[in-house]
Amino acid sequence: MAGNSRDPGRSVTARALSVLTAFDADHPRLTLTAIATRADIPLATAHRLVRELELWGALQRDSDGRYVIGLRLWEIGLLAPVNGRLREAALPYMQELCETTHDNVHLAVRDELDAVYVEKLTTPRAVPIISRTGGRLPLHATGVGKVLLAHAPATALHTCCERGLTRHTAYTITEPGRLGRELQGVRTRGYASANEEMTLGNCSVAVPVHDASGTVVAALGVVAHSVRADVARLVRALLPAADGIRQRLADGERVNLDVLQR
């Protein structure tokens, strides 16, 4: 279930949020009954909340009576800093990487134990992948995820291992000790790679993106076919791109500071 909203102690806000989180990548269009079931709220409550959310613009009803996320909610989501400043700073470098490598290019940030994909660029020649903009994948099995986990507080790795390291392919690292050594190598090398650990046939390579203070705020990665992936070549392309993003983020901070001081 998307929420436990039958609990009488839950607030109206919590119930409304459970309606919104009933939608996900596998369930982008839902009937009213499906919303009530996935949000775990009575049908009458779902009807009232859905109506209010529809009037506000968070939901809209399509031609066959199913509900989808509304345009107004999408507009508000675009105001999130990760979608604005970070994505804006990264896009020119991601486009250049996509043109030079002809592979998939990712920008991701960490949210708890997931890598959230802020942006994804691809070309007709790129290998098919399961990631999508706004989607989530596990930290331990992806290139960008390993970078983010390697630079996260130690408690993140501990929690990740406690939850269990899901084996997505025969090559996924699922032993906590081995993952810890892998992440130490990521910090030492300055990049991460995941060869067929999330999807067979794919190799991902990623580097950290720092802000002006030196904090790792994102990971920039390329996913290529494992047979033709040249890790060293991809790292050589990724590192200056990540540094360019860092510089643009720093320039943006200086502009904002200048405005505040006027």
Report on the structure:
This protein is α+β, with helices and mostly antiparallel strands. The protein has two domains: 12-77, Orthogonal Bundle (Arc Repressor Mutant, subunit A); 81-260, 2-Layer Sandwich (Beta-Lactamase), CATH 3.30.450.40. 47% of the residues lie in helices and 18% in strands. It has nine helices and eight strands. It has helices at 12-20, 32-39, 43-56, 71-77, 81-101, 143-150, 154-163, 176-189, 231-261, and strands spanning 59-61, 67-69, 104-111, 114-121, 136-138, 192-195, 202-210, 216-225. The strands form two sheets. It has a six-stranded antiparallel sheet. Strand 3 and strand 4 (114-121) form a beta hairpin. The longest helix is centred in the C-terminal third of the chain and has 31 residues, at 231-261. It starts with 11 loop residues before the first helix and ends with a helix.
End-to-end separation = 51 Å
What share of residues are in beta strands?
A: 15-25%
Oligomeric state of the chains?
Answer: single chain
In the CATH hierarchy, the third-tier topology of the largest domain is known as: Beta-Lactamase
Give the strand order of the largest sheet, numbering strands 1, 2, ... along the chain: 5-4-3-8-7-6
Within CATH, the superfamily of the largest domain carries the name GAF domain
- Number of helical stretches of at least 4 residues: 9
What general outline do the C-alpha atoms trace?
Answer: globular
Whole-angstrom Rg: 21 Å
**Residue-averaged pLDDT:** 89
Tell me the count of domains. Answer: 2
